[in-house]
Design brief:
Layout: E1 5-16, E2 20-31, H1 32-35, E3 44-47, E4 51-52, H2 54-58, E5 65-68, E6 75-82, E7 86-93, E8 98-102, E9 107-110, E10 118-126, E11 130-138, H3 142-157, H4 163-182, E12 191-193, H5 197-202, H6 208-217, E13 220-225, E14 228-233, H7 244-260
Antiparallel strand pairs: 1-2, 1-5, 2-3, 2-4, 6-7, 6-9, 7-8, 10-11, 12-14, 13-14
Helix pairs in contact: 3-6, 4-7
Length: 265
């Protein structure tokens, strides 16, 4: 069987103290078949070069800080502070998370990148200190394109509802998803009883079909148990039982998309 593969950014590692000393990006190569199964069969880890000075290389096994990216999380912006050398660097993700390393000197800078792109690699001019930052990007990021489609779907589902009803539903969904993201091992957060007072007053008021469509968009599948209606959080693209890490990642993604839609204010 022919299998295509993707290479996703998995981990960012940074070194530095008073100045920024270096960075290493770690990638994961996954076959297309693995993406559609729960088992993520033997992905290949690819370590990018440690782009840094002697200080970073001496401490290669002990990065100052690191950020492990979640499913569908990408680096979208690089900012920091610099003078004659780079004092500090911050990598920002599409999920609103960031990792920062370095000192507080210099002035602010941001690496300009095209809209809807994802940063795949970063380079510096290396000497005793680092300078001349450059980012290499993937334009028209497929991840950003998928986000745009999902956000349009959400806006379509909630387009006919009153502002207050929309806010209440999104606020409730953020609470449900936040519980899963923080405690993915807790099964009680993954199943919501449709007759629950909090649900009926915040989501149920949207109306039967709209409420179902909204919960489905948030990752909850309608189920029944002994005649009672529930909404159960599931990863429909996976076969078998997802891991807690996969549940948390999907919940984080849905939280990010809900906030990015601009309908929660």
């Amino acid at each position: 069987m022919f299998l295509t593969s993707v290479v996703a950014l998995l981990l960012t590692q940074v070194w530095g103290d008073d100045f920024f000393d270096g960075l290493q990006l770690v990638y994961e190569k996954i076959s297309q078949k693995d993406i559609t199964t729960a088992a993520f069969k033997s992905p290949t880890t690819i370590f990018g070069p440690l782009v840094g000075n002697a200080n970073a290389k001496r401490q290669k096994s002990q990065p100052t800080a690191s950020l492990e990216l979640l499913s569908d999380e990408i680096v979208t912006r690089v900012s920091g502070r610099k003078g004659a050398w780079i004092d500090c660097v911050t990598l920002h993700t599409n999920f609103g998370r960031a990792v920062t390393c370095g000192g507080k000197g210099g002035g602010d800078f941001v690496i300009p990148t095209p809209a809807d792109s994802e940063i795949r690699s970063i380079s510096f001019k290396i000497g005793g200190h680092l300078s001349d930052t450059c980012a290499f990007v993937l334009q028209d990021s497929p991840t950003k394109a998928r986000e745009g489609i999902l956000i349009q779907d959400l806006q379509g589902i909630l387009s006919s509802d009153e502002h207050s009803s929309r806010l209440n539903a999104i606020s409730a969904a953020l609470r449900y998803l936040g519980n899963i993201a923080q405690q993915p091992q807790e099964a009680k957060f993954q199943r919501i009883r449709a007759s629950n007072k909090f649900f009926t007053s915040n989501v149920g008021v949207l109306g039967g079909e709209v409420a179902k469509a909204f919960m489905s968009w948030c990752g909850f599948e309608e189920t029944s148990d002994q005649g009672d209606q529930f909404f159960t959080f599931k990863l429909s693209q996976l076969q078998g039982e997802p891991t807690p890490q996969q549940l948390a990642a999907e919940a984080q993604k849905r939280i990010h998309l809900l906030k990015s839609a601009g309908m929660h204010q």
